[in-house]
Amino acid sequence: MEIFEQWESEIRGYSRAYPTVFASASNARQTDEAGKSYIDFFAGAGVLNFGHNNPHMKQAIIDFIQADGVAHSLDMSTTVKRSFISAFAETILKPRNMNYKMQFMGPTGTNAVEAALKLARRVTGRENIVAFSQGFHGMTLGSLACTANQYFRNAAGVPLGHVQHAPFESNVGGGLEGLATLRASYENSSSGLEAPAAFIVETIQAEGGVNVASESWLMALQNLAKDLGALLIIDEIQVGCGRTGSYFSFDKMGLDPDIICLAKGIGGFGTPLAMNLVKPEHDAHWQPGEHTGTFRGQGFSFVAGREALRYFEDDALMALTLERGAMISDRMTALAAQYPNVTARGKGMIQALDIQNGASSKAIARECFDKGLLVGPCGIDGQVIKLIPPLTIPDNDLEEGLQILERAVKTVMEARQ
Amino acid sequence: MEIFEQWESEIRGYSRAYPTVFASASNARQTDEAGKSYIDFFAGAGVLNFGHNNPHMKQAIIDFIQADGVAHSLDMSTTVKRSFISAFAETILKPRNMNYKMQFMGPTGTNAVEAALKLARRVTGRENIVAFSQGFHGMTLGSLACTANQYFRNAAGVPLGHVQHAPFESNVGGGLEGLATLRASYENSSSGLEAPAAFIVETIQAEGGVNVASESWLMALQNLAKDLGALLIIDEIQVGCGRTGSYFSFDKMGLDPDIICLAKGIGGFGTPLAMNLVKPEHDAHWQPGEHTGTFRGQGFSFVAGREALRYFEDDALMALTLERGAMISDRMTALAAQYPNVTARGKGMIQALDIQNGASSKAIARECFDKGLLVGPCGIDGQVIKLIPPLTIPDNDLEEGLQILERAVKTVMEARQ
Amino acid sequence: MEIFEQWESEIRGYSRAYPTVFASASNARQTDEAGKSYIDFFAGAGVLNFGHNNPHMKQAIIDFIQADGVAHSLDMSTTVKRSFISAFAETILKPRNMNYKMQFMGPTGTNAVEAALKLARRVTGRENIVAFSQGFHGMTLGSLACTANQYFRNAAGVPLGHVQHAPFESNVGGGLEGLATLRASYENSSSGLEAPAAFIVETIQAEGGVNVASESWLMALQNLAKDLGALLIIDEIQVGCGRTGSYFSFDKMGLDPDIICLAKGIGGFGTPLAMNLVKPEHDAHWQPGEHTGTFRGQGFSFVAGREALRYFEDDALMALTLERGAMISDRMTALAAQYPNVTARGKGMIQALDIQNGASSKAIARECFDKGLLVGPCGIDGQVIKLIPPLTIPDNDLEEGLQILERAVKTVMEARQ
Amino acid sequence: MEIFEQWESEIRGYSRAYPTVFASASNARQTDEAGKSYIDFFAGAGVLNFGHNNPHMKQAIIDFIQADGVAHSLDMSTTVKRSFISAFAETILKPRNMNYKMQFMGPTGTNAVEAALKLARRVTGRENIVAFSQGFHGMTLGSLACTANQYFRNAAGVPLGHVQHAPFESNVGGGLEGLATLRASYENSSSGLEAPAAFIVETIQAEGGVNVASESWLMALQNLAKDLGALLIIDEIQVGCGRTGSYFSFDKMGLDPDIICLAKGIGGFGTPLAMNLVKPEHDAHWQPGEHTGTFRGQGFSFVAGREALRYFEDDALMALTLERGAMISDRMTALAAQYPNVTARGKGMIQALDIQNGASSKAIARECFDKGLLVGPCGIDGQVIKLIPPLTIPDNDLEEGLQILERAVKTVMEARQ
């Protein structure tokens, strides 16, 4: 650890929460250099839906390297990019009758959001974006303006403008009444507010505390956006790619977003990739190369990401995800019931235990770490324990992880009484 | 190509300039699926200093995968990250007596710049940044405000604030006089300008047209920054990592930047990585996790990047780079001399032929493509042909590439008369 | 009128609504050059609380001129300024136990608001201001950012930042629930909102449609401001100086604003003056001359404004104002009852008839003009007829004006059925 | 003075520099309540070109009051407004073949500038304004962004955006070279600068230190503006209305500004008035009432301002102004020659002695005050003594004032050696 303390920036965060050095990882387990094995309920903050070192992907990547595949291509055309695009169209878009263009950009979620914001502003000729409380959309200046958390915002060093924050469904002033207030404000020519270029929303606020928006609220939001001539941007970066039990978190809701931002899980293996799905009529507003990025064409991510899409060729993984999600939800609900103010919530295999107390939840996460389980606090002041294991986690790892968590909650909550 | 036309965003750029589908790549050659081989004088916009599919790196990556290495780790500590950090400190920093902290962020150059801007604003408590004409620093809103090119700026859709642009050394109003004007303005309490948080500069503006700043101008800029209590940020993203014949483009200049932004070449293999070198006294201003990013810990990049550092354990590659750079420079100078207004410039193995006419330079690039050479126009209106082959390019590929270029220039220039 | 059409800017507004040339004015009547007399229920948009050419003020001004009084003094001390300050302290502040500093600035309401915003930002070190829907605070860039009306905002030509608009009490999403939403947002560190420097509010939105805030809402707003460490700025520019039946519109409400903006009526005669009342602990943050203005020291306004203060040495005028206000209110309520959707509201001698239809209200105002009564539409799309006659209006003028209005409403509303 | 200390804001400035209470004023003299008489070389910061209590204006105002003239009219048409407009057209515009619309706004210079900026942005659809170092254009947020002085800018409390400052002719980096730098930057699509909506400039920077722009520089600036499709706004607020020996400071220069801002001297008597002269093709972009203001129609100012225009019906006053200006200039040049680093400059009856030392110049101003002369320091750190007596000053007052100044300079400069 000395090397890190001596040479790495003080900004390092997770390495403080998990003070060990990891040497290898396989499916839902990480092993540190001392040989201690950890069950991973964190999965790279939602990246590793298909586990660490997924064997199909490993083989595909090795084959790709050995064949001198094009690892880096900017936005030149390559055979592996074509395979990815083609598979995505066939497996994901066509079965849903979704007609979208795929835009690749610098391979980070924040870059996807920045590109979406640019396009929404271009299409509408408007500047303002509406984002929601607890929303997390990235760290670069454009997306950071949409991110709600003060800790991140304070690092900007300049005013974060051109974004208005409204209460998320679950907040005071939120719900359908909150959207009615927004609608009335935009319809009032003397409200001081002008119709926005876009609304950007996560259907489930993952970093924000696993707050799950209802279908009715999301539909009302979409209607508001359409009535105002504003775009609806769904940031699926953490909860897309199968996490909720279907490819998109909003499948079957009747939603028809203008732009869908994807990253994290889309490259499959943990290698970077980001992609926006953009309605063709909006996409037509782009001029060639207006939003570039050196690392756009990532061969490894196309290869592994193409493998990942095979999991969506049938319903097996998604059915299992729903089943296990229900089981985890039951366990968390039962656990929460034992403590005042503690609640459980989630959807599919993103589940959460809201401890309502940051110190306690951090103590629980630390206790889990000591006992061999990686979980991450999220939400305001880190009050919420988020569970996002790989969808491919073996049953016994899942069970063992849940037991470690249950015991850790008991240990900490009893000590705190 | 149909798949791309049907499904990929209209924003695609390089795939229009190079209308083929690449299937494989090795060192300085890319091969399309029709079997046509291209000599690569573009090298992934400066990423592939050590060639496509560098054999040392290939093997290291395969070994890493087969050993279930940790491919994705956010900013948790891993053994391969430690190896990279340690090698960078030993090979690059210590021999130069440079004392910097290494900060990893979302693996794109723009993300490195955004982090640098945040820190400079935090450290100084000031908002304004000075950037230079033709500067290119990225596409996300904070770095885009530093990027000078109108085409990119127009895509923002909101005013780009908190950045002042000054003429680069080679522009009208630039030079040492330009810096004297800036100094006088900052010393005048009634100039309307306030001392900035930082100056951000590329020692060689790669995208901006291969404009090479002189040592005296860079030293004057550094003195100005220090006198104003502003930070000096050097954006080494395209010209660092050995491109100019030494690891840093500013080696031996007496420069002592506060922050150095690295990306592109640092991961070695074309896999994403970005890193800032930050003076410890500035780095101490970061709070843990204030600038996060999902894809910070890229195992493949640490493994390949560590291999890349071996090229700097002795002088062989850098000596060769200088030698070949001089040869390319001679050839371009001789070529330029044959045409009015055409000039040559560059440093090490980033060399350029300034055609002074965008249509001609694009025609030359197209002619090169047809004849099997990849080169990219850069600079204002793409008037400048930039040559950045892999440093590891075989002699015969280099020679063949130069000859293709020389013929293409002749063909186009004669046709245009 | 030709001279105006030929030489005056196309921006002229009232001269289009009242297409005649006025030659003289006395108390509540204006006379045009054709000799036609108009009863004035508009009173210079709230400036002329004491009538046109108030005889006490006329004499005082003539005496002042004849004695070579100092008509213009920037912020130098003059005898007449001292008289004004002293009388204001004795007549207005001391009886209310109000301890405020008087700040004079460029003699426009917008300038008073700009100064208040600067000070609030200085005192708190924060940038954001909260203003309300329908709020009107001025036309210069700082105050315009607080003004809600889109028509005015559209003229800015730049984004209007650093101000957040919230629904006024009477709007959808307003009321005490609206303030609760604001409070929850500010208490949520992940709301995307930061505590503001100040809330700026009109107790009665005069330009905004004569929307009267309740005491309970204003007190809740004040409590919110205090809890957040934000300043409460009350913009009394149109409804202060006795308009509502007491000197301040918020007298006896238990409000304790940090800054009170005054203009319009304070100079008494229609000559420009603006003044902020500032709590001494805030005022101490000003450095000498930080907010200057050439026309700060207006002798005529000090002289006439001092005369105006005599009206507040006893209760006669305020008692009469309340009595007449009640009478006008009764008449408007009865009038409104005759038409669907038409409502009446107001306080003291600012009363309004809300026609709920801009075309109709403008037709009524035009019909009134033709019949010899000046009234001004206000509110969204000008749907509201605002009645703000001089407080000193003779009884018969008041009665005649009300009858003209009643007939005009009848005429227009019947024609529109 | 106690009343002021107790009740007036700490922001008061001139009353600290001139610590007495003025009771009356006539032409170029002010008298305090102790009976001490002061010669006024400050003239209300350039307002009182025709002296305090100009007898023609006094009589006209008294007649106006006694006839119940319309003192306050917003932008309704009045007979006195028509007289003013008509006289301005006949006396000033027509003889110069100038075709401009007159726009009246809130009666402060800052308001005139705000209106000009709005219109320039509207006409061009651009946001950025270019202003110059030492420029002074007002205190409200839009004009303050154009004002260069840091002391005033620091009071804003928010970033001042959408304005770029360039060095004025007399600054390092200024001159024709400075304009050439600007031109090159705007012609370079990769400069980071976009063509501005307007350039705003004072031909003589009065507050900024009496810096006199040359005709050739102003013409080059105008050419630059025209070539870029930007408007040229001349801020004549302090040096217009005859101050330089002709009505406009730029008369006979061949300049053809798009907007001319006037205030200060235009109302003649020290009562507020502001007016923009706007080219009709630009003025046509205004919608009615888009930039309003309560105190737009000031009867007193129209009446006195109309009297002021009589001074321009023949050449007498202007010829005298030039003659006296030359005399003052000679005296100041001779005075300056006695001291190292002290210089003199000016035009017409705005002349200055540049002491190059703020403490000394303030000491001189104080010594003058003690000896019965009012002069104001201006420029950076107040280093420049500005002389702007009424144009109507009696010869003996002018002579006596100059002698007081000469002695004060001697006293202070000798004491400082």
Automatic annotation (TrEMBL), chains A, B, C, D:
A GO molecular function held by the record: transaminase activity
Protein name: Diaminobutyrate--2-oxoglutarate transaminase
Family matches, as InterPro entries: Aminotrans_3, Aminotrans_3_PPA_site, Dat, PyrdxlP-dep_Trfase, PyrdxlP-dep_Trfase_major, PyrdxlP-dep_Trfase_small
Family according to the record: Belongs to the class-III pyridoxal-phosphate-dependent aminotransferase family.
Keywords carried by this UniProt record: Aminotransferase, Pyridoxal phosphate, Transferase
Cited Pfam families: Aminotran_3 (PF00202)
Listed CDD domains: OAT_like
PANTHER family, per database record: DIAMINOBUTYRATE--2-OXOGLUTARATE AMINOTRANSFERASE, DIAMINOBUTYRATE--2-OXOGLUTARATE TRANSAMINASE
Cofactor(s) of this protein: pyridoxal 5'-phosphate
Protein biosynthesis listed as a keyword: no
Key word Mitochondrion present: no
